[in-house]
Design goal:
two-stranded antiparallel ribbon; 195 residues; elongated
């Protein structure tokens, strides 16, 4: 998610939170018999949200309930779309490869992820490796997760990953740089008995 979208998202979530907090606080205050302004929906703790007259006002109009249901459905779909957009982690689908002739080519992101993970898995002492590409198609970044055997020095594994798998991926895709975020984790094992 870009910085602008992240900022807009935070501002909108903050505004929605403030509005909901203000409305909820006002309803709670009126429920505890605090004085309410004349324009407020509720006037006291025993007041209902919709009176009988307000609920039956549009009963004869055949268009009212379909419009209300359609508007609520659109709001629900927009909220679900926003939730998916916020929760989903962006994965790079393709990488732009400079072929040297001015044209360029595209490489599937999953293919580069698979090769990067397989090469990282071949590093001495790595039990399991996973890779994911993020960023832009002309400036990708890698997130690599390594599960290391108990005897492996993490610094050596990180150096080997950088010198072998990441360098090979960067050079094969003709990228100027391939920044990487590497998460190292040790494999779970029993404590060794020392005698």
């Amino acid at each position: 998610m870009s910085a602008v979208l992240r900022t807009v998202n935070r501002v909108l979530v903050g505004l929605a939170g403030l509005i909901l907090l203000a409305v909820g606080g006002a309803v709670l205050a009126v429920g505890f018999d605090a004085p309410a302004p004349s324009w407020w929906v509720h006037q006291g703790p025993h007041d209902v949200l919709l009176s009988t007259a307000e609920r039956t006002r549009w009963r004869e109009a055949g268009w009212w309930w379909p419009v209300v249901i359609a508007a609520l459905a659109v709001l629900l779909l927009l909220a679900l779309w926003w939730l998916v957009a916020v929760v989903r982690r962006r994965r790079l689908t393709e990488v732009l490869v400079d072929t040297g002739d001015g044209e360029g080519a595209t490489l599937r992101g999953r293919a580069l992820e698979t090769v990067l993970a397989q090469e990282a898995d071949r590093v001495d002492g790595v039990e399991w490796a996973g890779a994911r590409l993020t960023g832009r198609r002309d400036a990708p970044a890698a997130r690599v997760r390594l599960v290391l055997a108990p005897h492996v020095d993490p610094g050596t594994a990180l150096h080997d990953l950088t010198a072998q798998a990441l360098t090979h991926a960067r050079e094969s895709a003709h990228l100027a740089s391939l920044p990487a975020e590497v998460h190292l984790q040790g494999v779970k094992h029993r404590a060794e008995r020392v005698s």
